[in-house]
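Customer escalation, tier 2.

The customer says the design service returned an amino acid string that "doesn't look like it belongs to this structure." They asked us to rerun it and document both sides in this ticket. The original structure tokens are below, unchanged.
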């Protein structure tokens, strides 16, 4: 079951990245071309929000109860979380970065509900989605990262 959750979490990462890029392109285009905010824009932002929150929930389950979870793993004797690169990344850095990124996605989606001009909606959503994308790209355990690197696709 744990392997399945890790694989699902990994696959959802790609959906989040795709929807974030799509949301950024749509917000930038709407902002620069002074478009009217439509239901299509709202749906795109909503799907970005849904996939990011779903992935966050799966990630939190793994952080607390997964194979290397906080409640299911004991650190080796004499090891500090902050001195161990693996545990520091998966218990502190990755969850913190992703939670902050999801907060920015949520704020960006919240712009769809604000009673402000469409240009302001698009501009602020563009900024918040871009910040979220940068944070997510920083927080992902890419294969080239020492000690914490994971494959691009599950099972590879």
């Amino acid at each position: 079951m744990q392997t399945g959750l890790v694989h699902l979490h990994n696959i959802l990462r790609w959906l989040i990245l795709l929807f974030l890029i799509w949301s950024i392109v749509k917000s930038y285009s709407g902002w620069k071309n002074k478009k009217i905010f439509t239901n299509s824009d709202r749906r795109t932002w909503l799907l970005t929000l849904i996939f990011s929150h779903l992935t966050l929930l799966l990630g939190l389950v793994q952080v607390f109860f997964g194979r290397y979870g906080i409640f299911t793993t004991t650190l080796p004797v004499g090891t500090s979380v902050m001195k161990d690169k693996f545990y520091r990344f998966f218990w502190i850095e990755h969850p913190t970065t992703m939670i902050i990124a999801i907060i920015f996605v949520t704020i960006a989606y919240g712009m769809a509900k604000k009673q402000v001009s469409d240009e302001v909606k698009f501009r602020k959503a563009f900024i918040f989605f871009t910040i979220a994308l940068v944070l997510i790209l920083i927080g992902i355990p890419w294969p080239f990262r020492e000690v914490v690197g994971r494959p691009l696709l599950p099972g590879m």
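Tier 2 assessment: The sequence is consistent with the input. The longest helix spans residues 2-32. The helical segments are 2-32, 39-65, 85-110, 118-139. Sent an explanation to the customer and offered a walkthrough call.
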